[in-house]
Amino acid sequence: MIKLFKSSKKIAIKAPVSGKIIPLESVSDEVFAQKMMGDGIAIIPNDGQIVSPVDGTIGMIADTKHALGITTKNGLEVILHLGIDTVELNGSPFKMEVTNGAIVKAGQPIASMDIEQIQEAKKDPVVMTLFTNSSEKIKEFNPKSGNTNISEDVADIILN
């Protein structure tokens, strides 16, 4: 059998946290707002439970636990960035529930963060889901807006 065309791969991105979806361009850090780390979505969290937005493998957990990377089977590289300038908090508001190399499913609990501690330190607790190889991998990115609950679909991606 010969395939005459390659079908597009569509991936549903789950909300890693409950809260209000905001455009990535409106976050207070220019590196993220200008999409220097890739396209993505930001959510102002209502609580601190964090789940995986995609099926994949944990490939990176920052020493300060403020960020972790997940790679999907299609090669999409996803970074979950927990707050802005939270690297300065040396990991204290974060608890990881996974380790490097773990295989995760979308909606699986992977971390938690203490929003009050982050806010008391005068940091922004916004949770960003970034696609670091979006320019090579993503053909179409369709984020949703409004409020979301943890594990709900917040964006659709069509891969190249």
UniProtKB/TrEMBL annotation:
Cell compartments where the protein resides: Cell membrane; Cytoplasm
Primary location: membrane
GO-annotated molecular function: kinase activity
Pfam family, one: PTS_EIIA_1
InterPro entries xrefs: Dup_hybrid_motif, PTS_EIIA_1_perm, PTS_EIIA_component
Domain PTS EIIA type-1 positions: 29-133
UniProt membrane topology term: Multi-pass membrane protein
One BP term from GO: phosphoenolpyruvate-dependent sugar phosphotransferase system
Protein name per its UniProtKB record: PTS EIIA type-1 domain-containing protein
Domain of life of the native organism: Bacteria
Record's keyword terms, sorted: Kinase, Phosphotransferase system, Sugar transport, Transferase, Transport
Assigned GO CC terms: cytoplasm; plasma membrane
Gene source species: Companilactobacillus allii
